[in-house]
Design brief:
The structure holds 2 protein chains of 2 kinds. Helices cover about 30% and strands about 30% of the residues of chain A. Chain A is built from 12 helices and 13 strands. In chain A, the strands form 2 sheets. In chain A, strands 1, 2, 3, 4, 5, 6, 7, 8 and 9 form a 9-stranded mixed β-sheet that branches. A 4-stranded mixed β-sheet of chain A has the order 10-11-12-13, with helices on both faces. In chain A, strand 1 and strand 2 form a beta hairpin. In chain A, helix 8 packs across helix 9 and helix 10 packs across helix 11. About 0% of the residues of chain A have low confidence. Chain B contains 17 helices and 12 strands. In chain B, strand 4 and strand 5 form a beta hairpin. In chain B, helix 10 packs antiparallel against helix 14, helix 12 runs antiparallel to helix 13 and helix 12 packs antiparallel against helix 15. In chain B, the strands form 3 sheets. Chain B has a 5-stranded antiparallel β-sheet, with helices on both faces. A 5-stranded antiparallel β-sheet of chain B has the order 6-7-9-10-8, with helices on both faces. Classes of the chains: A alpha/beta, B alpha+beta. Chains A and B meet through helix 1 and strand 1 of A and helix 11, helix 15 and helix 16 of B.
């Protein structure tokens, strides 16, 4: 008898302990797929793009009306998010948020204003995308009509992953990356920028440049060539992308003297070399690529020509990389994590330079070596021949 | 008058009760009178009196129940020799009367295979009831019992509930003797024992306990017989009557005996040292001891090559978990753990849930109940209207209810998928466990989400671990863990590697495979 009482009371404990208040029917919820944080004057503005169940489903060509909420005030972001329940009948499931858009005003003011919600809030995942809205606000991005998808947020998420396989300019930044780089000395975070192209008859959202941060503030941007250079310098293996070369030994016809190279794989390695009390960063990049398209009809399949093509490709990559480094040094922001590398390799040296690292970084000498290998020309060895 | 009648009946009953215990009398008239009292109102009994012998003119009587005997055989081999060929007995050398005469008849006259002399009315009656014929002659205090059992029974067919693609298709019938014959045909060894018991005070049902002497643990057989002997019931119609008496734990939903209609499956179990109990009048064979994992194994696995068999076994285990957990997981996810669902799936689910008036739990409960109802109805319905039920089920549940907005489409899919998965379990009584447990887990999931599911599963596991079937742990070989046996449970071990029988306590001989070539 006592045994049974024990079992029953244990059972009751199991069920009472956690309470059962947090059950929520799926049709009483709404999904914010993107969250936007921005400043407007002295007010914080929290906006969100909502996916609503009623509108999707039956396709029939009708695009879903986009539901955007926007709350402004002086409270915290979480409070602003909760404030949305004053006008919204359904509970937003913030865990579904897959991108957070940081407004340019906020980023230029202070990143310390929003890192806490990214780091602390249990509904914000670590692996969501972060974007920076350049010259526009998150709310405008959310309200923007897009093609092929229902929501601008999903469009941008898919764009940033697709472009890396197709053209290879930007790299996605996840919340965890951003937080890690913000919290680590010797490396600064970047964010991909989103802009709205105002064309005569339609607006189009677009990835455009990379925002560079320095000590809690956004200080400037990389353009697309510098962004590509930044990608070439990425410490992880990159494995897709296209870039154009000026054809060597060309026909002096600008329209025709273009060659497109496809990147198969590229890996950047760098190390700090200390010589004569000066830090020199040695960058070596090993790249393999394919000849993807040529618009003049010159035969590039001879060994000399291949060699020339490879040198040309190396030059182009070097140019992009140098431009990127120059911009970063101009902004004094160590987005490559060289300070971190020095800290690991030469901890004593790091102790000396870490206080004025941005200044030291801006004066660093670099030595870039690119080794490009042309691997394939897609079976068309000889150029096309008219006869 | 009514009272008088009652009294008379009472008296008659008492009289019958007393008479049956008496021995056979030397005087045949006495015996006939007594038997007539015993067989009063038994319209199917036949009492045939005749006389034989030219010189002696001895009275005889033949007793049997019509329909249980082979009448042609009685006429040919019993009545005919008695009436015509008795003269062949050499009456000169031996004085023939009473006991001698009966012995002489058994020895020299009757051309029947089974003959036996019995001396109490009770034994005689038991044999008549079983389809034997009893011959009484004047002057003998014994009756001669002739084995003339024959009745119309179902032929050996392939069992409907346990169909297989590959392997033997024979199934047991309602006649115990055929069933033991089916087993004996597969085990041609005198070590295959069929221990006979009679159970049921009134029905006097034949029960047979089968085992292979050189393999089975002697203690196990002893224990089975001991537990069976404790049962004092008026009738036994199916081994299912016995299960609740002989299992270790009664208050549980977990089946502790396995039932099958297939002699090959029984043989397989006997070869693994288990004991099979069969009851006359039922085609089901009960096998003890069992472990839970055994229910998820189909005998067919052992007839197929081990690679496909192992894959299908894994599939079956998966189906078991789907049947047990899928509705609960679905409920838990859509009411508690929304963030586990991918975004686009969430939109689809939410869209279909839109406008459904019930909470997801009630919705699931309704559909599950409907499914169980349909399933139960399908069992009982006459064949002719069976398809009607499935049409009604498919139309009403699958289509109309969704269109009316009473239930959501994903829920229908989930319940239907669960239903299909629950049919994968080979053993019917294990399927019942899943069906019952599913509702409990569903309620726990609706209350607490995954936490509730885990609690429910833990409770279930705790209960299962506490069970024992004739000393064998119910979850063996999982708990206590036995890796070597587990390799023939989760997957099917190749036969050449299957050198040992699964270990049951006290098993005498575990060698299954000798001289294995590599």
């Amino acid at each position: 008898m006592q045994r049974y009482l024990l079992i029953i009371s244990l059972l009751l404990f199991f069920f009472i302990l956690p309470g059962c208040g947090n059950s929520l029917e799926i049709n009483e919820t709404i999904i914010p797929i993107g969250m936007g944080l921005e400043l407007k004057g002295d007010d914080k503005v929290l906006s969100a793009q909502m996916a609503s169940a009623q509108e999707t489903g039956s396709g029939e060509g009708s695009s879903a009306p986009v539901l955007v909420i926007s709350e402004s005030g002086t409270g915290t972001w979480a409070e602003l998010a909760r404030r949305s329940s004053l006008s919204l009948s359904r509970s937003p499931l913030w865990a579904f948020t897959s991108s957070v858009f940081i407004g340019e005003n906020l980023a230029r003011k202070d990143t310390g204003l929003f890192v806490d919600i990214l780091a602390r809030n249990r509904f914000i995942r670590n692996n969501i995308f972060l974007f920076l809205t350049k010259g526009t606000t998150p709310e405008e991005i959310f309200r923007c009509k897009v093609q092929a998808e229902d929501y601008s947020v999903t469009t941008l998420e898919k764009t940033i992953t697709t472009q890396e396989k197709q053209i290879g300019i930007y790299m996605p930044v996840y919340a965890s990356d951003f937080l890690y780089k913000s919290a680590t000395p010797g490396i600064e975070p970047v964010l991909p920028q989103v802009t709205i192209d105002k064309e005569p008859n339609a607006e189009q959202i677009k990835l455009n440049g990379t925002a560079v941060f320095l000590e809690r503030k956004m200080v400037g941007s990389l353009d697309q060539y510098e962004s590509r250079g930044f990608r070439f310098l990425s410490p992880k293996m990159i494995s897709a992308g296209l870039f154009n070369l000026k054809a060597p030994e060309g026909t002096n016809n600008d329209l025709a003297d273009i060659i497109t190279m496809e990147l198969i794989r590229s890996e950047a390695k760098w190390e700090p070399v200390i010589k004569d009390n000066k830090i020199n960063i040695q960058v070596t990049i090993k790249t393999e690529g394919n000849l993807y398209e040529q618009n003049n009809l010159i035969d590039y399949s001879t060994p000399e020509m291949i060699n020339k093509l490879e040198r040309e490709a190396e030059n182009l990559m070097k140019n992009n990389i140098t431009a990127c480094i120059a911009k970063a040094q101009l902004l004094q922001s160590d987005i490559f994590g060289w300070g971190l590398g020095i800290k690991k390799k030469h901890p004593r040296l790091w102790e000396e330079v870490k206080t004025d690292w941005p200044q030291v970084f801006s004066r660093l000498d670099t030595n870039i070596e690119v080794d490009f290998k042309l691997r394939r020309s897609y079976l068309l060895e000889k150029p096309f021949k008219f006869q | 008058m009514r009272y008088l009648n009652e009294n008379k009946k009472q008296k008659n009953k008492n009289q019958a009760h007393e008479i049956i215990a008496e021995p056979v009398s030397v005087n045949i008239q006495d015996n006939i009178d007594k038997l007539k009292v015993l067989l009063d109102n038994c319209s199917d009994s036949v009492i045939r009196e005749f006389r034989f012998g030219r010189q002696k003119d001895i009275r005889c009587v033949l007793l049997y129940f019509d329909g249980l005997v082979d009448r042609a055989e009685i006429e040919e081999n019993l009545l005919r020799p008695m009436l015509l060929e008795l003269n062949m007995i050499d009456t000169q050398t031996k004085p023939l009367d009473g006991q001698n005469l009966l012995q002489e008849i058994q020895d020299r006259v009757l051309s029947l295979a089974e003959l036996e002399q019995l001396s109490t009315l009770q034994d005689l009656c038991h044999h008549i009831n079983s389809g034997d014929t009893v011959l009484l002659i004047d002057g003998s205090d014994k009756g001669l019992v002739a084995g003339t059992r024959f009745w119309q029974g179902r032929a050996v067919e392939s069992p409907e509930n346990e169909s297989v693609i590959q392997g033997p298709k024979e199934g047991f019938t309602e006649t115990l003797r055929f069933n033991t014959a089916l087993l004996r045909r597969r085990i041609k060894s005198t070590r295959f024992k069929t221990k006979h018991l009679v159970m049921g005070r009134i029905t006097k049902t034949d029960v047979v306990v089968c085992y292979i002497e050189s393999i089975v643990s002697a203690g196990l057989v002893q224990e089975v017989l001991e537990r069976l002997s404790r049962i004092d019931i008026d009738g036994v119609l199916d081994p299912g009557y016995l299960e609740e008496f002989i299992v270790d734990t009664r208050w549980t939903i977990f089946a502790q005996a396995e039932y099958t209609e297939k002699p090959d499956r029984v043989t397989g179990h006997l070869l693994e040292g288990r004991v099979c109990i069969m009851v006359d009048g039922s085609p089901m064979a009960m096998i003890v001891p069992t472990s839970f994992l055994q229910y998820l194994i189909s005998g067919e696995d052992y007839y197929q090559r081990f690679i496909p068999a192992s894959i299908f076994r894994v599939l079956r285990f998966t189906a078991f978990f789907i049947a047990l957990l899928l509705p609960s997981l679905y409920i838990a996810v859509i009411t508690f753990h929304h963030e586990l669902i991918p975004f686009s799936l969430y939109l689809t689910l939410a869209t279909s849930r839109e406008g459904v008036p019930f909470p997801a739990f009630i919705e699931a409960l309704m559909l599950e109940l409907t499914f169980e109802l349909l399933r139960e109805a399908g069992l009982r319905l006459p064949r002719a209207i069976g398809p009607a039920v499935s049409i009604v089920g498919a139309l009403i549940i699958g289509d109309a209810a969704v269109r009316a907005g009473l239930v959501s489409t994903p829920m229908v899919v989930v319940v239907a998928f669960t239903g299909i998965a629950s049919f994968v379990t080979p053993a019917y009584n294990a399927g019942i466990i899943i069906r019952i447990a599913r509702f409990g887990i569903l309620a726990a999931a609706a209350l607490l989400g995954f936490y509730g599911i885990i609690i429910a599963l833990l409770l279930m596991l705790t209960r299962m671990i506490s069970l024992k079937s004739f000393g064998q742990p119910y979850l063996s070989p999982l708990a206590p863990l036995d890796i070597s046996r587990l390799s023939d449970i989760l997957v099917r071990r190749p036969w050449p590697k299957n050198t040992l029988r699964p270990d049951i306590d006290g098993m005498q001989n575990r060698t299954r495979l000798k001289h294995c070539e590599k």
